[in-house]
Amino acid sequence: MTVRIDGVAQDASDADGDVWLHRFSVRDAGTGSWGELCIAGPDGTVAGFPLAGSWTADGRHLQGSSGFTVTCTAGAIGKCVRFGYKPWRDAAGVSLWNYHQACVRMVRADYGGDGTGYTRTGTLVDIIDWLGIQRPGSDPPSRNLQFEAAWGPDGAVCVRRTRIPEVLSLDELARRYPHLAGKIGPNCSEAVDALIWNRS
């Protein structure tokens, strides 16, 4: 596809000044007219940005790969960068590469780490990590959320409950992902060693 850059502006929500938001347009092959490449993200921003490297079909970000990926603010990859998990940065001396990967798995509810998501657009999640990049939300909607899972770069480390049970039940999760056996249920909590945790 042919992509046109219509504008570039620094992301006002990025305290580091690293992220520059691009307005991308794509040409409709039938009509020849130009339209937005991206849809609005959670904060209403319709934009995207390039991110170094490529992604595999099972959702792994290949470190050191050539080229770049165009990600939109509405997508999991872009959301996680804007949440503060910038794969090119460190926090407290710790590389954020795996934190970004874990965040992408969490946003997509990619429990098995195979690139399959089990969420729905618009589902509210609250993210927590030990680095303090994301802290538990204190607003009323966040207070009503329940612990869901602990996450690493390869998917869920453990799962207390699935985000949307009618999309994927705990029984079906265990059947599809045998490597999570013994890691599903009430023993999954913020005490489990992981990079990030979430409530939903």
What does this structure look like?
The chain has 200 residues and is of the alpha+beta class. The chain has one domain. The protein has 4 helices and 13 strands. α1 (76-82) crosses α2. The longest helix is centred in the middle third of the chain and has 12 residues, at 97-108. The chain is globular. The model has no long low-confidence stretch (mean pLDDT 94).
Strand and helix order: EEEEEEEHEEHEHEEHE
Alpha-beta classification: alpha+beta
Arithmetic mean of pLDDT: 94
> Total number of β-strand segments?
13
Strand order of the largest sheet: 10-13-11-12
Low-confidence stretches: none
Brief write-up:
The chain has 200 residues and is an alpha+beta fold.
Strand and helix map with partners:
Blueprint (H helix, E strand, L loop, with lengths): L2 E8 L9 E8 L6 E3 L11 E5 L1 E2 L5 E2 L5 E5 L3 H7 L7 E2 L2 E2 L1 H12 L17 E4 L10 H4 L3 E6 L2 E5 L10 H7 L19 E4 L1
Antiparallel strand pairs: 1-2, 2-3, 4-7, 5-6, 8-9, 10-13, 11-12, 11-13
Label this structure with key terms.
200 residues, alpha+beta, four-stranded antiparallel sheet, three-stranded antiparallel sheet, 4 helices
